[in-house]
Amino acid sequence: MISYLEFEKPVAALEARIADLRAAADGNEVDISTEIKRLEARSADLLASTYSALTPWQKTQVARHPSRPHFNDYVDAVFDDFMPLGGDRHFGEDEAIIGGLAKLDGRKIMLIGHEKGHDTESRIRHNFGMGKPEGYRKAIRLMEMAGRFGLPVVTLVDTSGAFPGVEAEERGQAEAIARSTEACLALPTPMVSAVVGEGGSGGAVALASSERVLMLEHSVYSVISPEGCASILWRTAEKAPQAAEAMRVTAQDLLALGVIDRIVPEPVGGAHRDPLRMAEDLGQAIAEELDALSRKGAKAIRTMREERFLRIGAN
Length: 315
Fold this sequence. Notes:
Layout: H1 9-25, H2 33-51, H3 56-63, H4 71-78, E1 80-84, E2 97-104, E3 107-114, H5 120-125, H6 133-149, E4 153-159, H7 166-170, H8 173-186, E5 191-200, H9 201-205, E6 212-216, E7 220-222, H10 226-233, H11 240-247, H12 251-257, E8 262-264, H13 275-293, H14 298-311
Helix pairs in contact: 1-2, 3-11, 4-13, 6-8, 10-11
């Protein structure tokens, strides 16, 4: 059952009409298949036209869709032999950030990413994808391990931001994020990051400071949420749509600005409408990037990272 967003109401009405006609046709001698096909075509056209002209705020809503595939969904669909490695060896385990050894098209990699969860229980367990210091310190440990064993690193970013609670600050949240960013930049092996939903604040940058940064077509990436920005500038979260427009949070804007390197197209209607196809397309894109990077040495890779980040904002 698809959960429709506010701007999808016309599509929802059409699809409800189609469902009603199918139910009425069951056991009915009157042939209404032609009408159903006509409405299905109209619904598909309306969905395509709607998603071809999304505003930044609407893309933000799509990026947050509760049915959008998350880290574990991608692991199940395209990564093989995933072996999770837990703990930061200092404080404990953080299930908002998951990492471990895996294979992609036969290539051994270190896979790290945010997991938001899909229902109330799993969302609470994964802290809604908001990493704590121990999560980022775990990521550092895994990146250093990857460097020692010559494994490329793949990160899947999907977080509204690092956890802002008092206990996280007491355990050194800012320091953990800074050192995770440093670990990305110092990694001697190839690193490819993909923003698959929300890329929020330092919580995202800490896992996305790589030489190749990808974004899904309807994902967003920003220093603060549109609601947070609106609350600061206008003192009301109701101005979030205007903030999203001004902040240039979309993949299309960020590609033009040179902040990211590649956009991975989503199925019509968003990744949540065809998670398996989305996972396969993302896996192929990541594999292509790793193939291109596999011929470069550690010095060349670090230079690529340094140059890509120094270029941002230079013009």
